[in-house]
Amino acid sequence: GRFTEVNDAGCSLLGFSREEILGKTIMDLILPEEKERLFSHRERFLKGETDLGEWLLRKKDGTFLPVEVSAKILPDGRWIAIDRDISERKRAEDALHHAQERFELALKGADLATWDWNVKTGEVIFNARWAEMRGLHPDEVKPHVDSCLAGIHPDDLPIVQKALVECLEGIHSEFECEYRVSTRSGEWLWVL
């Protein structure tokens, strides 16, 4: 279970010299709470599977580096792993997550909801606020255009359908319509 070889890139990635890494085990470099996950991956490796996963590896300075690891066990019993630094990707994912949170807070503060409709497939992506305005949990909403149409007041449905057709045919460049939708409590909510 000890490192027997490491290339220069691996040394540079973690800040260790080759001599400092050789003889260490993977347990010396991962978080203690990741031990069980490592053992479950080992079981899959022993069955001949290759694994691609994300791990935090301890650098010489004590900080942790997020890496993507592709690993397998070779026929002679040695593990081989290729590690790739994913710090920039993680920073970008984190920034995107925070931007989405701020966007959702702004929508909620303005009492706005969003939806995105793939006209070809019928798939609709709703934000959480869209469901909440109707008294629903986001998991309760089927991600399909039928979810939108099902809650429209019967008297308003022809107006909505006409506006949709005119938008899809290019008569209007945007879909805009004011109509009522049902809420879980049975009330009607006016939306634009």
Describe, in plain words, how this protein is organized in 3D.
The protein is α+β, with helices and mostly antiparallel strands and 192 residues long. 36% of the residues lie in helices and 20% in strands. The protein has 7 helices and 7 strands. Strands 1-2-3 form a 3-stranded antiparallel β-sheet, with helices on both faces. Strand 2 and strand 3 form a beta hairpin. The longest helix has 23 residues, at 87-109. It starts with 7 loop residues before the first helix and ends with a strand. The relative contact order is 0.07. The mean pLDDT is 91.
Q: What kind of assembly state do the chains in view correspond to? A: single chain
The overall strand count is 7
- Give the end-to-end Cα distance, rounded to a whole number of Å: 63 Å
Radius of gyration: 26 Å
What number is the mean pLDDT? Answer: 91
Q: Approximately how much helix is present in the residues?
A: 25-40%
H-E string? HHHEEEHEEHHHEE
Strand order of the largest sheet: 1-2-3
By DSSP (H or I, 4+ residues per run), the number of helices equals 7
Biggest sheet layout = 3 strands, antiparallel
State the secondary-structure class: alpha+beta
Which runs of at least 5 residues are low in confidence (pLDDT < 50)?
Answer: none
Please indicate the percent range of residues in DSSP E strands (runs of 2 or more): 15-25%
Which of globular, elongated, flat, extended, rod-shaped describes the shape? Answer: elongated
